[in-house]
Request: fold
Amino acid sequence: MARSRYSGTPTIDGKFYASFALRPNPGGLKTVDLLAGVRTFEHLYARGERLDHLAARYFGDDGYWWVIALVNNINYPFASGGLVPGTVLAIPEQVQDVLDKILR
Reply:
């Protein structure tokens, strides 16, 4: 019988969450202002919107939802992510500008 990939995975409120260990960076964490020099516009968050749908609309790829979460300091982007209708989100005009800063 095959072993479940979820065996040994911690649960929170009965839901499985992946876990992994990060090795400490001996040089410390690098701080990057992801919006410095990046042209953005504002998006007024409405009830029922999702970050992946916003990424698809603005970047043409729903896989870049994490960029919106990252530049707006959204710690838990799933479900509502703590966002309330009326929250103003900064959306980079070009997702590549943010990716270039991350990859430096």
Notes: The mean pLDDT is 77.
